[in-house]
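Chapter summary example.
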Amino acid sequence: MSTNLNLQAVDAVVARAVLAFDRWKLASAQSRADFLNELAHGLEWSRDPLVDIAMTETSLGKDRLGGELTRTVFQLKHFADKVLAGRLSADVENEVVAGPPPAGHPHLLRTHVPVGVVAVFAASNFPFAFSVLGGDTVSALAVGCPVVVKVHPGHPRLSRAVQAIAQGVMDSRPEWEGLVGLVEGAGFESGVHLVEHPQVAAVSFTGSLAGGRALWKIANAREVPIPFYGELGSINPVVVLPSALEQGGGERAAALAASIAGSSGQFCTSPGVLIGLKGPAMDTFVQSLAAGLSQQATHRMLTEGIERSFAAGVERLGRLTERGVSPVPVLDPSGVPKPGLFVTDAQRFVDSHELREEVFGPSCVVVLADSPAQIAEVLLSVTGSLTVTLWGLHGDDPAHHRILDAALRIGGRILFDGVPTGVAVTESQHHGGPWPSSTNALFTSVGDASSARFLRPVVLQSFPAWARARVR
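The structure predicted for these 472 residues follows.
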């Protein structure tokens, strides 16, 4: 398809979404919930063929993809329940108070309106949960916003199959027509055109720092800038203090190895940095981690481009660190990545911007610090991360306070146990963080609050009763 025809196709999909918005912004909670539930049922009904397609396009395993599809179905049903319960936006109302201001005031209602058509850029690493009917899509639909999804070139057949299910649901009721649209195009042009389109009101993106930064700039350079909610890159530091290794160090090493290498390290929350104090206990833990990584089963990466990027990233880490703990090749002859583990000292890590860049894949840099204060310094050098994991900080101690304060400066989710991979879809979840982990640390892309990205606050003052019914 020529570029002009491709862009015309984008315009046509957006035009249908604009017409859908006029209906959907006023749809009842029941209609919205019904739509989400029907989408969930459609995915579940087609589970086996969808997983089969995803396996051929992504190299991800059947169990991994089946679990992700279950998560996607759960998200749709979860948001349907929240829509019916009225939990996705909270109105605040003040009745008239007689008298002059500031104590006196008119009748005021602070509510929210949907922003309009939302462009969703599908992610490579979650072909179900962050794609056509994934979290960004459901959180927009739930609050009255139609969605136009930019297909990820890593799984186009799966995207079309999921869209066909969505189209079948949309065809079943006139008020659902045009709520989910799909645009394709392997080049940059269709994505840029979508972000620049004057009828697109917001953008969500999960992908690389370079691609996200470019689209973020375009969104802000428009005649009327629009919100761009991007998740761009995160190294997810794990801090381990000696007290965490006194008992169960081997179990922790095994859990961390699985978290680093799971799905060939292609999670946005995969641990990329391990920070600990120099000493025999840490040396033993690192050796246990290396042994655990050598036992992890990896598979081909999602795309050839990701493979090349991983190879270049690990080569860079090997150049910049003092020594590599894992001497195995980066990619075996079939292109399967081998986990890489590297060691450096705290000062070198703080001084090197390149060491703090995400390497998307199964690799981890071990940073050895001289003191808890230096651990805090290492954390602060990271600038922004989706997660920070803190092992061994359960005691109320000034040194622990300093480390936690640093973690709070850079992290969106702070774990005191466990590993960062695995993000629960809940009311209390926050999946975001300071740049470069996301473009706006105030918002989340997972959980109930993710819908807030697509709602605009508005106040009705001294309003007639009928006006309230026009705001949902």
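To summarize the output: The chain has two domains: 3-232+438-468, 237-415.
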